Structure formats: structure tokens, C-alpha cells
Recover the amino acids of this structure.
């Protein structure tokens, strides 16, 4: 029993971080109706940025949160402006231009393989002051980097939600999500909103990179692992929903850590896919998805 | 010479050149490159039946290649059934599985459908990697299956030279292209096109969009599985990560999109453009700079989508129109 509760604790902490990796994806989909296949690669860029920053300057790992997310915000902002906006312009009347999916897939290939050329294929870890530290709560052990990751993930989700409902810019994002033509007529510049959504989504991938780096390893195709998981999470939670992404993340984290108590960990992956398909067939819009989005 | 005669002459000429090529190109390495080119063109044409004509974006077609390869190989290795028969069995199973996935997912919008097909294909891959055997049937988990050498034998679908494989895949490609041509001109082709562009409007006209999408999915999956058997017999070895992985599924979709989705020539043009590029950059740049070939690949993908979102076929068709107008002396290109 102790082992199971321990697994639940670990699962919730990891799950919140999975949710964080899916948060940017769900935001971008919610606003633009586009699945960003480059999301995992952007997470990889965030992880490498955090890795080199911590490795070269030796700063406390969480100080990287002040540098990496803003950097990635601009990266995402200008990537959307340069590569994705023209495609949207060309296919204005299409609600979900599949061409955009392909452009983001191209970005994924380019980024992953540029990283491979620059840094090689080896797995890299960075030793920080908090790596491997933990404290005990009764019978249970809580890893400090994972707990910090959990706290940052929840704080980011709450922050994003507050931003969406409380600020004017957030409301403009929501308006564009609901009806881009109507939002345009209200004087909202659709493409500036897309730049913002992409920038924020990418910045969140940067936050995820910073909190995962202290206890995980980075390699050029690390994004694929998180990417597929993030796809499953957003479909589970409902594409476009913030709390859906966090809940979906925790569910995946729990399945992974609890089931791995009873079976080889390669099987838990198969179970995640099976659960995903069952939920999809029973309730395709996910937990909090909007009916019109699927 | 009329336009129709010109089209026919050039087509016959192109096919004749394809059939004559092995007389000139005898190097097994180059033949292998051509075989794989036709293999990808075939797979993409089959994909195009659902991904192009039905207007959805399936990103998990490798699972059907896998079904074909596993079915025929298990049947021939363990039960002595000829791979030719196993190939048909694999096709039927794939068509069945395709309908099974298609039924609940075709109701969904583009993005959901794409993600579901990915999740399904990855789920199957992970399961196969975890299974060593189902009862008496050996699957071999991540190690994959090996086909023992049986020498030159048509019945066993094994040949010591590359030429027979070349002619088999060329014939398969020609047949599947002809099939797409017939479908695109049939009632079903129009229904599919209508359903892909404006599902609500098509439904209002009394077209059972879902049914035609399912039929096209079943056909596409059946044809894809046939290529799986071909691949298994050509390589005599395959493993889940290589055959069922996302890389193959994505490459098929890329070839279609770069060539021109929903057109008959698109998959062939896409394969002609991308495969040699892929092979040569991998051979000449892969050893010094691993990954460079995929950077080039990704860049081309982005550029084509930015400047020719409908793929390479429409501009090439315009060029051909101009050329044909000059030859036949019929009025200017319109």
C-alpha cells in the first residue's frame, strides 16, 4: 500500500508537468485551431537552453526561468509571424488549414536535426544543487525538483487562466478563439493575436523545459516523447481547455506511475494508448472540449 | 496531333521507359533506390485515396504496412502459406481494422482525426514491441521477424535478383494509379470530393458522406497492406520501430502533400522529387553531418507549403499545358 501511495504522489507531480508540456499546445489550438506539431521540438529547445545556461553559468536552475521563457516567447512569436501567418493568409476561408500542420512538422524536423548536428545524439544531464535532493513525509519520499516542478506547473496554469479571463489581451485571445471573423470586425488584429498565442505557448514550453531539466536528460529528439504524450493529454482534456490539459496530464502521470508498480514500464505506455482510445470513442470531445472543435 | 493523342503517347512512352530501365541500370544499389521510389509512390497513392480524396489527414498509415508484413510473414514462416495468399489475407485484415478506426473517427474534425490515427498507430507499435507471442503465433517483440532464405521461387515470393521485385512493384504502382484514375472519374470520386470540401452541403444533397469515406478507407488500407508484404519479401527482415514507427507514416503524408494531395499524379511526382533527394543526401551527407538531410527535408517541406500550398502538381500541370499547346498548335494555355 505504501508503494502505491508513493506512486500516486510521484504520478501527480509528474502528471502536472506533463500537463504543463501540453498547456502551450492546447492554448495554440484553442486560439488558432491548429495542432502545433513542433511543440515537442520547442520544448527540446527550451531544455537545451536551460541546460547550457545552467551548465555554463552555474546559476541556480530555477533562475533559468527568468531567461529561457522570454527567449522562447520571441522565438515562437516570430516563428508564427514568419512561417505560419502566410499560410493562414492564403487559406483564410478554411477553418483548420491542414497546411499549417505540415509547416509545423517541417519546423519539427528542422529543429530536431539542427540540434542533432550541433550537440550530437548523446543524452545530457546537468548536475545542479537540487538534483537528487528529497525530503521525507512520514513513510513517503518527495523529490524536491519534482515538487518544485509541480508547484511551477500549477502556478503557470493558474496564471494563464487568470490572464485569459481577467486581462483585455486574454479576452481578445478568447474572442479570436470563438469566432475569428467577428473578432476581426471588433477591431482585434487576428494575426497579432496568433503571434501572441504562439509566443505564449512557446514560452510555456520554455517553462516546462526549465523545470524538467534538473531531474531529466535532454537529447535532440526528446521532444517526440513529450509530444505524443501531450497530444494524448490535450485530446483527453479537450483541445483548447486549460484545466482539461492539467487534468489530462495528471491522469496520464497517475496511470504511468501506478501501473508501473505492477507491470513492466513498457506496458504502461500501451495502457495509456488504450485508455486514450477508449475515452475517445466514448467521449470524443474529451473532458472539457467544446463541441464545435471536434 | 490532338491533345489526347499527345497525352497518350507520352504516357505510353513513360511506362515503356520504366519497363526498360532495368536493361540499362544493372547496379543492384540503384535498382534498390528505384524499387523504394516506386514503393513510396505506391504507398502514397494508396494513402491519397483517403488522405487526398476524402479530405482528412491520416498520420498512422504505417500500421497497415505493418499488418501486411506481419500477416504474410507469420503465415509463411509458421504455416507454410505462400506470401501471395498471405498478402491478400493481410489486406483483408487491414481493411477491417481501417473501417474499425474510421467509423468513430471520421466524425471528427481534421486535427482530432490526425491525432487519433497517430495515437492508434503508436499504440499498436508499443503493443507489438511488448508481445513475444500470442499463443502459438510468434511475434518476437522489438526484435521483429526474419524470413528464411528459400532461393529463387515465385511461389515463395523470393528472388535472388532485384529485377523481379522491380517489375512487381512497378506493376502494383501502375495498377493503383489506374484505380485512382477510375475512382476520381466515378460517382464515388465526386461524392468523396464533395464530402471532403463541404461535408454539410454534401449531406444535404443526400450523399452518405460517412459511407463513402469508409469505403475509401477500406480500399486504402487494403492496398497499403499489400505493400507491407512486398516490403517484407524485399528486405526479408523487419522490426516494429522501423516498419510501424511514425517516420514512415509521416513520410507518406509528406510525399502526398508536396506532390499534390488529391491529384492522381501528385503522389508519383512527390516520390520522384523527395525520394532521390532523401537517398542522396543521406548517402553523401549522412556520414559527415548526421541530421543534415532531414534539415533539408524539413526546409523543403516548409518552403513548398509556403509557396505552393497545393503541392508541386498544379504548377507542373500548367507547364505541361503550355508545352502541349505548342506541340499541338491548339490555342494558348488557359
Amino acid at each position: 500500500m505504501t508503494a502505491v501511495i508513493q506512486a500516486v504522489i510521484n504520478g501527480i507531480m509528474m502528471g502536472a508537468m506533463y500537463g504543463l508540456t501540453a498547456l502551450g499546445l492546447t492554448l495554440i489550438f484553442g486560439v488558432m485551431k491548429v495542432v502545433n506539431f513542433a511543440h515537442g521540438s520547442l520544448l527540446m529547445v527550451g531544455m537545451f537552453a536551460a541546460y547550457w545556461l545552467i551548465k555554463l553559468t552555474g546559476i541556480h536552475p530555477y533562475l533559468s526561468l527568468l531567461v529561457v521563457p522570454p527567449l522562447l516567447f520571441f522565438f515562437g512569436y516570430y516563428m508564427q509571424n514568419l512561417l505560419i501567418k502566410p499560410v493562414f493568409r492564403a487559406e483564410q476561408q478554411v477553418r483548420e488549414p491542414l497546411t499549417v500542420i505540415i509547416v509545423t512538422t517541417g519546423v519539427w524536423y528542422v529543429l530536431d536535426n539542427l540540434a542533432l548536428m550541433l550537440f550530437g545524439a548523446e543524452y545530457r544531464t546537468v548536475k545542479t544543487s537540487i538534483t537528487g535532493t528529497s525530503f521525507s513525509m512520514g513513510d513517503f519520499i518527495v523529490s524536491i525538483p519534482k515538487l518544485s516542478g509541480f508547484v511551477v506547473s500549477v502556478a503557470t496554469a493558474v496564471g494563464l487562466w487568470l490572464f485569459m479571463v481577467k486581462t483585455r489581451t486574454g479576452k481578445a485571445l478568447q474572442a479570436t478563439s470563438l469566432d475569428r471573423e467577428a473578432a476581426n470586425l471588433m477591431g482585434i488584429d487576428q494575426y497579432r493575436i496568433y503571434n501572441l498565442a504562439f509566443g505564449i505557448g512557446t514560452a510555456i514550453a520554455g517553462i516546462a523545459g526549465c523545470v524538467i531539466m534538473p531531474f531529466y536528460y535532454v537529447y535532440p529528439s526528446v521532444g517526440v516523447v513529450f509530444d505524443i504524450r501531450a497530444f494524448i493529454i490535450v485530446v483527453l482534456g479537450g483541445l483548447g481547455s486549460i484545466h482539461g490539459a492539467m487534468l489530462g496530464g495528471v491522469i496520464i502521470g497517475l496511470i504511468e506511475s501506478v501501473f508501473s508498480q505492477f507491470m513492466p514500464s513498457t506496458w504502461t505506455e500501451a495502457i495509456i494508448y488504450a485508455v486514450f482510445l477508449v475515452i475517445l470513442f466514448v467521449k470524443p470531445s474529451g473532458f472539457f472540449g467544446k463541441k464545435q472543435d471536434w | 496531333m490532338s491533345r489526347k493523342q499527345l497525352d497518350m503517347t507520352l504516357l505510353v512512352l513513360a511506362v515503356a521507359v520504366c519497363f526498360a530501365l532495368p536493361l540499362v541500370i544493372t547496379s543492384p544499389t540503384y535498382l534498390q533506390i528505384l524499387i523504394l521510389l516506386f514503393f513510396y509512390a505506391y504507398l502514397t497513392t494508396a494513402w491519397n485515396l483517403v488522405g487526398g480524396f476524402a479530405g482528412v489527414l491520416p498520420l498512422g498509415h504505417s500500421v497497415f504496412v505493418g499488418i501486411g508484413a506481419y500477416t504474410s510473414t507469420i503465415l509463411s514462416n509458421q504455416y507454410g502459406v505462400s506470401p501471395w495468399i498471405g498478402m491478400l489475407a493481410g489486406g483483408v485484415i487491414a481493411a477491417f481494422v481501417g473501417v474499425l478506426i474510421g467509423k468513430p473517427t471520421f466524425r471528427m474534425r481534421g486535427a482530432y482525426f490526425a491525432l487519433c490515427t497517430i495515437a492508434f498507430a503508436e499504440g499498436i507499435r508499443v503493443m507489438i514491441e511488448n508481445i513475444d507471442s500470442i499463443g502459438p503465433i510468434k511475434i518476437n517483440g522489438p526484435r521483429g521477424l526474419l524470413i528464411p532464405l528459400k532461393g529463387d521461387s515465385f511461389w515463395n515470393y523470393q528472388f535472388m535478383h532485384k529485377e523481379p521485385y522491380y517489375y512487381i512493384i512497378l506493376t502494383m504502382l501502375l495498377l493503383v494509379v489506374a484505380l485512382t484514375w477510375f475512382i476520381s472519374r466515378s460517382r464515388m470520386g465526386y461524392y468523396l470530393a464533395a464530402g471532403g470540401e463541404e461535408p454539410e452541403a454534401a449531406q444535404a444533397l443526400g450523399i452518405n458522406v460517412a459511407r463513402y469515406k469508409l469505403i475509401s478507407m477500406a480500399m486504402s488500407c487494403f492496398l497499403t497492406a499489400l505493400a507491407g508484404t512486398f516490403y517484407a519479401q524485399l528486405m526479408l527482415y523487419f522490426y516494429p520501430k522501423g516498419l510501424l514507427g511514425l517516420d514512415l507514416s509521416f513520410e507518406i503524408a509528406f510525399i502526398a502533400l508536396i506532390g499534390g494531395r488529391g491529384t492522381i499524379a501528385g503522389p508519383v511526382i512527390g516520390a520522384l522529387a523527395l525520394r532521390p533527394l532523401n537517398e542522396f543526401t543521406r548517402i553523401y551527407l549522412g556520414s559527415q553531418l548526421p541530421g543534415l538531410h532531414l534539415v533539408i527535408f524539413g526546409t523543403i517541406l516548409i518552403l513548398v507549403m509556403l509557396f505552393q500550398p497545393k503541392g508541386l502538381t498544379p504548377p507542373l500541370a500548367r507547364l505541361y499545358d503550355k508545352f502541349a499547346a505548342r506541340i499541338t498548335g491548339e490555342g494558348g494555355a488557359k
Remarks:
- Residues 2-230 of chain A form one domain.
- Chain A touches chain B through 49 residues (CB under 8 Å).
- The beta strands of chain A are 134-137, 140-143.
- Chain A has a mean pLDDT of 87.
